């Protein structure tokens, strides 16, 4: 088959890879350059989604944990295990027993793909293991493992794997003017006919259908996640509750510095994707709430944002599903949602739709 894939992020790239393996003739269209949008501005984690267990998304977590291992195995220079600590304070919104259940399930769902079992830590042990943490009101703590990656370079590695196939073509700087359910694609003023078209445009997937008057059974919640990087060295990661909220944020070592994020702010597809001043201040305040060595705005060496396309299901962004879904409209297949870690698993499901 002659197949078009729209979107050069990690989902589109992995879909193209799986299609090429099945000997289809694949053309990948990207409006900018590969991995230049959402896929390169993540939290840099290959993870199962420990916090998704609160929403009972067991299938997604199990799949993501299996895929986490695949990425680490395939590109160990770009993806490695990372130890992450969870401190529990008297004022924490989630009790220690709830974290214990979640971490037990996390290990259980990982099965043979587990990269390290969780551990319990006493307050005294936490003082020795996490000397930078504020210890007042600390009760206990846990540690567990997830994967960390260089998302941009790992994405480009995936692109390089697909480029090895002779049945693959990539067209960058390709603005998609029109698509239709019969397989027609108009880009940069050129029209081409395909047997199938895969809409993997990430945050723009729903808008692409809307602009072409194609009915969609799903809508997307666009949630901006902002991060800051400060010039501080950190030995391991932290999974923390945002002060006064149930939202989780991470403090992670990244390339000799410290990455802090993410926020969760709804936005429209037409809004500029960049951190708001309020988000930057929120992340600084959240970090300073937990760590002895406080930081200020001048310590920030980089700030960035990405938009997560979440399948719309709730007014609460913490409860919006991280699951993905696939819609078929004759010869047009659209992908909604999805997370970095599960891009290969999603791609395999798209191939089954073909």
Can you tell me about this structure?
This protein has 354 residues and is of the alpha+beta class. It has 2 domains: 2-39 and 153-219 and 322-353, FAD/NAD(P)-binding domain (3-Layer(bba) Sandwich), CATH 3.50.50; 61-149 and 220-311, D-Amino Acid Oxidase, Chain A, domain 2, CATH 3.30.9. Helix content is 27%, strand content 31%. The protein has helices at 10-21, 58-74, 96-110, 123-129, 151-163, 205-211, 277-290, 343-353, and strands spanning 2-6, 25-29, 45-46, 79-89, 119-122, 138-149, 168-171, 176-179, 184-187, 190-193, 196-199, 220-230, 237-241, 248-254, 257-261, 265-266, 300-311, 325-329, 332-336. Strand 1 (2-6), helix 1 (10-21) and strand 2 (25-29) form a beta-alpha-beta unit. It is elongated, with a radius of gyration of 21 Å. Mean pLDDT is 95; it is low at 313-318.
Keywords:
354 residues; 8 helices; 10-stranded mixed sheet; alpha+beta; D-Amino Acid Oxidase, Chain A, domain 2
Briefly summarize what is shown.
The chain has 354 residues and is of the alpha+beta class. The protein is built from eight helices and 19 strands. The protein has two domains: 2-39 and 153-219 and 322-353, FAD/NAD(P)-binding domain (3-Layer(bba) Sandwich); 61-149 and 220-311, 2-Layer Sandwich (D-Amino Acid Oxidase, Chain A, domain 2).
């Amino acid at each position: 088959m002659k197949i078009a894939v729209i979107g050069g992020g990690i989902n589109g790239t992995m879909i193209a890879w799986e299609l090429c393996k099945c000997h289809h003739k694949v053309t990948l269209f990207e409006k900018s350059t590969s991995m230049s949008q959402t896929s390169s501005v993540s939290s840099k984690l290959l993870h199962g989604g420990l916090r998704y267990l609160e929403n009972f998304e067991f299938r997604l977590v199990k799949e993501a944990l299996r895929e986490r291992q695949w990425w680490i195995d395939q590109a160990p220079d770009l993806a490695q295990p990372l130890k992450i600590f969870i401190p529990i304070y008297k004022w924490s919104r989630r009790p220690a027993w709830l974290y214990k259940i979640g971490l037990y399930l996390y290990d259980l769902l990982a099965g043979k793909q587990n990269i390290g079992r969780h551990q319990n830590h006493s307050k005294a042990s936490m003082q020795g293991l996490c000397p930078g943490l504020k210890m007042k009101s600390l009760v206990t703590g846990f540690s567990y493992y997830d994967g960390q990656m260089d998302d941009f370079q790992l994405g480009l590695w995936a692109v390089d794997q697909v480029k090895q196939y002779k049945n693959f073509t990539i067209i960058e700087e390709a603005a998609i003017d029109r698509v239709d359910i019969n397989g027609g694609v108009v880009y940069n003023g050129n029209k081409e006919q395909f047997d199938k078209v895969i809409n993997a445009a990430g945050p723009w997937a729903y808008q692409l259908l809307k602009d072409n008057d194609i009915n969609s059974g799903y809508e997307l919640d666009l949630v901006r996640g902002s991060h800051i990087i400060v010039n501080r060295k950190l030995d391991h990661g932290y999974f923390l509750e945002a002060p006064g909220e149930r939202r989780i944020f991470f403090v992670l070592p990244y390339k000799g510095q410290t990455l802090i994020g993410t926020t969760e702010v709804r936005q429209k597809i037409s809004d500029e994707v960049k951190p708001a001043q309020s988000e930057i201040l929120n992340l600084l305040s959240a970090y300073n709430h937990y760590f002895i060595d406080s930081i200020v705005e001048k310590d920030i060496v980089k700030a960035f944002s990405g938009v997560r396309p979440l399948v719309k299901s709730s007014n609460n962004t913490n409860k919006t599903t991280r699951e993905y879904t696939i819609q078929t409209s004759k010869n047009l297949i659209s992908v909604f949602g999805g997370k970095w870690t599960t891009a290969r698993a999603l791609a395999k499901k798209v191939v089954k739709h073909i």
